[in-house]
Amino acid sequence: MCDIMKEKRPLILVGNDDGYSFNGIHTLIDVAREFGDVVVSAPTEFQSGKGSAITITVPLRATLHVDEPGLKVWLVNGTPADCCKLALDQLLDGRVPDLVLSGINHGANLGVASLNSGTMGVIFEGCVHGIESVAFSYGNYSYDADMSACVPVLRNVIARVLDHGLPRGVCLNVNIPYDKGPLKGYKVTSTCMGRWVHEFERRTDPHGHDYYWMTGEYAPHYTAGEDTDLYNFNRGWVTVTPCHVDQTDHEAMPAIERLLQ
Amino acid sequence: MCDIMKEKRPLILVGNDDGYSFNGIHTLIDVAREFGDVVVSAPTEFQSGKGSAITITVPLRATLHVDEPGLKVWLVNGTPADCCKLALDQLLDGRVPDLVLSGINHGANLGVASLNSGTMGVIFEGCVHGIESVAFSYGNYSYDADMSACVPVLRNVIARVLDHGLPRGVCLNVNIPYDKGPLKGYKVTSTCMGRWVHEFERRTDPHGHDYYWMTGEYAPHYTAGEDTDLYNFNRGWVTVTPCHVDQTDHEAMPAIERLLQ
Questions:
Q1: Contact B256 A250 (CB under 8 A)
Q2: Which of B210, B247, B260 sits opposite A114 (nearest CB)?
Q3: With 70 as the cut, is the pLDDT of residue A221 above it?
Q4: CB of A58 within 8 Å of any CB in chain B?
Q5: ipTM, 2 decimals?
Q6: Which CATH number fits domain B3-193+223-260: 3.75.10.10, 3.30.830.10, 1.10.287.3510, 3.40.1210.10?
């Protein structure tokens, strides 16, 4: 391929939170390479649950793990958001990617749980930088999950986002069901509000001291409606939730004006 | 005070991200105690930048550091969100606090930076649990900042929130200017969209290997308007931004429907 042709291929930045050793990111990389040149910036270690955490007290290091035509893989000792930030600022030689992809997460990111999701942390960083960004999560939580059922979904969503773009400031949280029967198709959904219950399991160590494992089950409460991600995911739909990084509650502003008067 | 009177005092859960050794949280505790019984659940270590990160691979431990009438202080080896979650699930003996307070952060939490803020991570957890929650941040970034200028603001906001409550699902991000002249009063604001530029400083270690310190400056881009937190904070207003934990972009849903057709 001549240089001019090469320059026309989209540049796709790929990250995740499980780390580079997991199947999910390899399936995503394989599909992304069908569409463009891929640079991976992924955590060296398992970083699930890190949300949009960033690292400011420890310096980051990046190791170039794979360097072949159309694919570079950087491993970074940071959070998912760190990996994305470091790539955008330092590892892409000044190029701006056409797309930021995250996942495939081993486990769904539904409801308010997405607040704590490192998979989402990657695309929120992409979104802050004004780049089209999509996160993919699969309902199979197994560390060695077979991701092949996700491939047609990835191909479809990536093709459409590359062709048509996304509204400004919007990124996508895509969840692919597992074990819910044949996929029914796509539903555009909202985030199901809810909360965890029984969040911790208390145990006692051999020295008699208590410690707590985070666990918990998700209890949807005030809007488990038919337009939510959780409702549709559980019925076999691939859910696509448009998200943004602005957490302002604009509707509440007049009420807060009154509160402060 | 008799037991019945005691039961009527509000229960206030206090957290932060800088850790219990910082001035900010002590100023907040002192003011909170004027209003109710206080339980602190704060990180043992500095946890700035941790956003809504949670800890799932390491168990948490909680040490009861202070136990006196009207005040308990738990120190937890986790993130700011962990501390809040553990308190709500385990450390409050089944009681639900009337208020979750976070801060005072040594440094402002303005614009999209709040996405990465551990101070905000605390109140987002409170908000997920349906509890009135307020974060306070001060524009002085010094580790030994004198927080006395914040006290009247804390008193005013806490009193109003306890008296009148907040709209359902809404928490408050309060930023108090430093070094901008006399405080002008309160402005209800929106989060200033923007992004960081020059995010990392590359250095070389004594062994010849590169490493990166996160740094960067915040560059407001597409909405640095007159209703934003950044604009008003820089002009000496205490900014009060109503936030929520639902990151769905509801307005974008029809556009994403079309994208997938």
A1: no
A2: B247
A3: no
A4: no
A5: 0.92
A6: 3.40.1210.10
